[in-house]
Amino acid sequence: MAHPKEVGGYNLGRLIIEGKTKQVFDLPEVPGHCLLLNKDRITAGDGVKAHDLEGKAAISNQTNAKVFEILKSAGIKTAFVKIVAPTAFISKKCEMIPIEWVTRRLATGSFLKRNPGVKEGFRFTPPKQETFYKDDANHDPQWSEEQIVSANFNFNGVTIGQDEVDYMRKATILVFEILEKAWALRDCALIDMKIEFGVDSEGNILLADIIDSDSWRLWPSGDKRLMVDKQVYRNLTNVTAADLDTVKRNFAWVKDQLDHLKPNVHHKVVIFMGSPADQAHCQNIAKVARDLGLNVDLRITSAHKATEETLRIMQQYEDTHGALVFIAVAGRSNGLGPVLSGNTSYPVINCPPPSEKLVQDIWSSLSVPSGLGCATVIYPDSAALMAAQIIGLQDYIVWARLRVKQLEMATSLRQADKKLRNQV
Ligand SMILES: Nc1ncnc2c1ncn2[C@@H]1O[C@H](COP(=O)(O)OP(=O)(O)O)[C@@H](O)[C@H]1O
Ligand SMILES: [Mg+2]
């Protein structure tokens, strides 16, 4: 088959690989990147069942882009770059790790066959993670972690050992949980999904390939009968034109729903400081909070010297925002946090500035009158993280950024440990 020479204004190089649903082309003018061209093709059963489905490539392209945008904004490292044509997008060029990483919230489908006795709908907490070796000829056999490590894969200079497998397993579960929370906003239950990872030319392990209606089971209202994913196609014995139309309509519905998966809660973190002298400390809190994607305001007001003004400012915020956290920064005797806390039902976090007298001063934040529920931390990043945890209860993107941060911390500690071991 003749290949296109150009797509979306990009000159195509050689066809790197062609699979069941996509072609991957080199981009000679964009080093380190490739172009993925979706096909109007739907397949199931390792390609045994296959049909042309006009319009599927464009729906898939949009679905994938929207899903990857959500994951990107949550801080997940992905290969996706941008859409460049109705059926094509640019991605970082990867050497792909030939493993399908599957996560399940409820037991259904092939899990039930492989685990006789487990009833459909069994709920996994935490989600169940399984790995399959990509090998159509042998029906993608399930692989254990030991098998993956023993394969001694090396892609773009990275050996896939225990550390890399651990990272991918954690990232896989995180991706599932993010999309599960996202879909919950539309009352859709994400039942299970599969993803793939690749290694880019710089040796980064990235979430790659695509995520579309072929990648998951999605049950509106948690009702299997309402399924809108590729399972509808898998279940068909005789595939009619009307059936294919239903499948396509479902896929298009999913693509459109993805526009409504952004967190719909406005939030604000207001840092009150008792004196301009506390600004440096407050800026440290604001920086960590903003890096987590929080909207932050900084205000100067003294609860001791200008009580009415303090309460007036506080009430202005209560009036205008949904998810709201106050952080109170006051040296010496902290009247600010307890006064805010005694007059609002929103959370207040005390974070007194560093001082030689902190050990004595801290008691004004800790030993508060009855009826007050403010919390106290002393490090700027602790205050920002706690605020993010509170906002994250209502905003899954903020929640996800916290989880990504934890995953990155664990990874960098492990890398430091590895470096140290290699030195000795
Ligand atoms: N960013 C990328 N860089 C290089 N190859 C990729 C990238 N993303 C996906 N691929 C590969 O593109 C190939 C074609 O995709 P697809 O048609 O889904 O294949 P398959 O039938 O093997 O699932 C797959 O082998 C997939 O691993
Ligand atoms: Mg595929």
SSE blueprint and pairings:
Blueprint: E1 6-7, E2 10-11, E3 15-18, E4 22-26, E5 33-38, E6 41-44, E7 49-52, H1 56-73, E8 80-85, E9 88-92, E10 94-96, E11 99-106, H2 110-114, E12 123-133, E13 142-143, H3 145-150, E14 154-155, E15 158-159, H4 162-184, E16 188-200, E17 205-208, E18 216-220, H5 231-234, H6 241-257, E19 267-273, H7 279-291, E20 296-300, H8 307-320, E21 323-329, H9 336-343, E22 348-350, H10 358-361, H11 363-366, E23 375-376, H12 380-392, H13 396-423
Parallel strand pairs: 19-20, 19-21, 21-22, 22-23
Antiparallel strand pairs: 1-2, 3-4, 4-5, 5-9, 6-7, 8-9, 10-16, 11-12, 11-16, 12-13, 14-15, 16-17, 16-18
Helix pairs in contact: 1-6, 4-13, 7-12, 8-9, 12-13
The structure holds adenosine-5'-diphosphate (ADP) and magnesium ion (MG).
Residues 19, 21 line the site of magnesium ion.
